[in-house]
Amino acid sequence: MTHVTSPRPNPDFRPNPERGIFLTGVIGSDTLDRLTPSILKLQAQSRSPISLYIDSLGGNTFHAETLQGLLQARQQDQPSIRLITVATATAASAAADLLISGDYALAYPHSIIHCHGIRMGQDEITHEGAVDIARYLSGRNESFALRHAFRCISRFCFRYFRIRTDFPDIRANDANLTDVACFVRALQSRLAPNLQGLLDDALHLSAEAMNLPII
């Protein structure tokens, strides 16, 4: 009798609380003071992935970017450590940006994720200042979106190779389905009904942007 064993979990795609950093509350300078020693200690112990567990409504974007830079900093003779981010309850605003910035990102089913564009405030502003701020925010938002889209490539590749064994069953009713179409249907079967519409919307927007037929 042949025994089928489950594939060995890949640590690059599995959060590990033993190498975890726990981000809670509002992100500010005190957040960096509290988390920096733990981050440096984990980085000195090994180059294995670090998991960032998030339950935060966000906060100061400068401190959030500093935290991200510290987590993903390269050493002189070594590459950056892989970062796995996990939304345990709430990841909003700057905390949502941290969640998305992980090399691999996960969210608990009950978690709430809220994203919005970069914002900044000033007490007084001139017309010239408004133009400069608008140009700055537009550039930052576009750069941020491209950076996060690039990170999604490896995540989708990982998911594709994990579920491509489902493709023969999906093609049972339509042998002409492309691999991309099979991948989409496999993803839809794993999403809750109220989330499937998000995938459909994303596919339509992508197809329109690239002038391709909608799957």
| CATH fold-type name of the largest domain | 2-enoyl-CoA Hydratase, Chain A, domain 1
Number of spatially distinct domains: 2
Overall mean pLDDT: 84
CATH 4th-level superfamily of the largest domain: 2-enoyl-CoA Hydratase, Chain A, domain 1
Task: Tell me the strand percentage band.
Answer: 5-15%
CATH architecture of the largest domain: Alpha-Beta Complex
- The counted number of beta strands is 5
Proportion of helical residues: 40-55%
**How would you classify the helix and strand content by structural class?**
alpha/beta
Summarize this, please?
The protein has 215 residues and is α/β, with parallel strands linked by helices.
Structural features, described:
- Helices cover 49% and strands 13% of the residues.
- It is α/β, with parallel strands linked by helices and 215 residues long.
- The protein has two domains: 11-116, 2-enoyl-CoA Hydratase, Chain A, domain 1 (Alpha-Beta Complex); 161-210, no CATH class.
- Helix 3 (94-100) links the parallel strand 3 and strand 4 (104-107).
List keywords for this structure.
215 residues, alpha/beta, 2-enoyl-CoA Hydratase, Chain A, domain 1, 2 domains, five-stranded parallel sheet, 7 helices, 49% helix, 13% strand
